[in-house]
Amino acid sequence: MKSLLLVLLAVLACTGCGAAGSARARPLFEAMPLPEWRVVGAAAEFTLAAEEDGGGGATLVGRGPIPRNGFLTSPRELGDFRLSVEVRLGSAELPLGEGMNSGIQIRSAERDGTIAGLQIEVDPTERLWSGGVYDERGRGWLAPLKDDPAAMAAFRRGEWNLYEIECIGPRIRTRVNGVACAEWFDGAVSGLIAFQVHGGKACEVAFRAPVLEELGAHAWMAEAPEAQRGAQERDDASRAVPSDALGVRFERLAGNATVELLADDGSSLALVEIDAGAPSMVEFVWLDGRGAALVNGARVASLSLAKPVSRVTVRGEGVSVGGHAVLRRAPHGAWNGCG
Questions:
Q1: According to CATH, what is the number of the domain 218-329?
Q2: Which of 2, 12, 126, 225 has a CA 20 to 30 Å removed from the CA of 116?
Q3: To which H or E segment does residue 72 belong?
Q4: Whole-angstrom distance between the N-terminal and C-terminal Cα of the chain?
Q5: Model-level pTM?
Q6: Which residue pairs, CB below 8 angstroms and at least 24 apart, start in 126-129?
Q7: Among 205, 201, 209, 177, which Cα is nearest to 90's?
Q8: Could you read off the pLDDT of 130-178 as tens digits, one per residue?
């Protein structure tokens, strides 16, 4: 009886685990078989072994040398998901991964013959930013780890390192070996995933036992014309925000604007000055009371919201606003990326 109780306690303790602990989770290459994946960018060599040295899961190995970055790219986009995978960077000749670099692309896209988008870094250098968020062929570093000594110390060179990546709505969170590393809020809420072999003289990276849990999707939805007319009748600089929304977007905001997020009782939750100048993409995104304000993808303010957002107002002399959309959960069955 005592041993049965211990087993039950162990099962309950795993209820809050990441992808590997969920009944909805599946081995990645069962959810998306390897023959459906493509190599994009430089022609890196990728091989998949059913198991490595009793490691308990399929192991993908990517190798160079290649003249520029190469990616093994998923056959379809993902919306919200959790991904767990063990990562080891290094070869027999360079067991600590000296001079190597890699990463896991999320919410990315194919562009100009390569992959662009968000990357979770695998970095064995003295910089120690493994688990940080980088924008490949885009904005550069978004969430480096330079001010977080615990996160910087999480990655172990030459060893297997457990990466846990969670993407829900606008929020991206990473953990390396159980240590929280990065949290980033972004307007990109869907895209491809890919495994990177970095360009250069030598690179060998192994990804063991990848497990994927898909969690539906969120999408930017344009405000219906009748909703726009209703808002304009009340206040042409104000928009209601649905209770289930996780963000608001102005695709063409020009001028120096003051944007305010309001609660249902009219109290101010956040006040952000936006110096947009030319027409710009302005996004406010949030989840669980935290978030960010972004102008053309660059974070201009962090958000701490004590109550749900009910309304957004935009004020400023000479300000023009267009293309209003809200970030909401995609209806069941409407998300083409999900299997």
A1: 2.60.120.200
A2: 126
A3: strand 70-73
A4: 41
A5: 0.88
A6: 128/152, 128/153, 128/155
A7: 205
A8: 999 999 999 999 999 999 999 999 999 999 999 999 999 999 999 999 9
Q: How far apart are CA 90 and CA 98, in angstroms?
A: 7
Q: Residue 268 burial (CB < 10 Å; 0-12/13-18/19+)?
A: exposed
In the block, which residue shows the tokens 């749900």? Answer: 308
Token pair 């994927």 is found at 212
User: What is the Cα–Cα distance from 144 to 161, expressed in whole angstroms?
Assistant: 18
> What is the phi-psi region of residue 90: left when phi exceeds 0, alpha when psi lies from -120 to 50, beta otherwise?
left
SS3 229: helix
DSSP structure class, residue 54: T
How far is it, in rounded angstroms, from Cα 25 to Cα 82?
8
The answer to whether 250 touches 316, Cβ cutoff 8 Å, is: no
Identical fold for domains 18-214 and 218-329, yes or no, is yes
For residue 85, give Cα distances in angstroms to 100, 175, 207, 252, 256: 19, 11, 6, 39, 44
Q: What is the mean pLDDT of residues 77-90?
A: 98
